[in-house]
Amino acid sequence: MIFDASATEALTATTFVSNTHLMSGLLGPRDVHLRVVERSFPASKIRVQGNQISVTGPDAAKVLRLFDELVLVLESGLSLDPTKIERTIDMVADDLRPSEILRHEVARGAKGKPVRPSTAGQKRYCDAIDNSIITFGIGPAGTGKSYLAVAQAVSALHRRQVQRIVLTRPAVEAGEHLGFLPGDLMAKVDPYLRPLYDALYDMLGPDGAQRLIANGTIEVAPLAFMRGRTLNDSFIILDEAQNTSPEQMKMFLTRIGFNSKAVVTGDVTQIDLNGKASGLVSIERILGHVEGISFVHLSAKDVVRHRIVADIVAAYEQHT
User: Fold this and answer.
1) Poorest-confidence range of 16-20, 22-26, 293-297?
2) More exposed terminus of the chain, fewer Cβ within 10 Å: N or C?
3) Which long-range contacts (CB under 8 A, 24 or more apart) does 71-79 make?
4) How far apart are CA 28 and CA 82, in angstroms?
5) What HEC string does 261-302 produce?
């Protein structure tokens, strides 16, 4: 694409898309993608003639950079939709490179579909997991905290960086020992780890996941069963960590052995401890200075469920 830098003084910029196929993907069916961009930049006028796009207005340079980034996304083989356009607009507004974020591959699912971050926050989260021994992913529901952690764990297992995956979660509703629930340990903890199972099935397929669980390569256990253990050569995920007590959090973090990596996920707005202290709330104040530990805070901008979920999260954030 060609950017007419000399035209920016007149608040007009022009770019040229290299082929009709890219232009079609850029504009979307019946120009639906173009309409999203126009609504987001109401002070700028966008004109399309053939494969040429001209933008006039105070945001002309930013809109042209947006189109440049979207073409790079299309050239990498990814498709666009209105939601992805909106996320890309948010990233450009923050002076980020959406093409680098959206093209980053975390892992591949059971059917070969790549798992990629959808937002800048998710990319920071994935980078932190890669570069840290312990990563805390803190944010609202729908931000991909658990899913991306499982994807990273499966990728590490496939690359033989670890020998096993350990998934754990406090089951506060049933009591930590889960004694009154029927069945064996797996049956007792299963309802509380369902989101992690779903991610595993996406990554490995139901049969592949169950095979690795059966041979012990993937271990699923309630948090209470971590006490007294040392976990070497493992990728450990503690999900729903807002429902741990400070004592449980300390216990979990001190289980980590050599050549292991841990991801702790949670949402401090969804604590189910009946007024008791959460081990996640104060953890950054305690461990924020420790080398090898990263904290990534996700927000409504990182919600990848239906757009209304992001709006609900944002509304609650403003209300509190």
Assistant:
1) 16-20
2) C
3) 71/1, 71/17, 71/18, 71/22, 71/26, 72/99, 72/103, 73/98, 73/99, 73/102, 73/103, 74/22, 74/25, 74/26, 75/22, 76/102, 76/103, 78/102, 78/103, 79/25
4) 9
5) EEEEEECCCCCCCCCCCCCCCCHHHHHCCCCCEEEEECCHHH
Residue 259's identity, in one-letter code, is N
Structure tokens at 310: 């992001």
Taking the CA of residue 87 as centre, how many other CA atoms within 13 Å lie in the half-sphere pointing to its CB? 28
User: Which of 297, 295, 316 has the alpha carbon at shortest distance from 119?
Assistant: 297
Largest CA distance in the chain: 73
Give the integer Cα–Cα distance in Å for 242 and 245.
8
Taking only the tens place, the pLDDT of each residue in 112-165 is 888 999 999 999 999 999 999 999 999 998 899 999 999 999 999 999 999 999
14 close to 4: Cβ distance less than 8 angstroms: yes
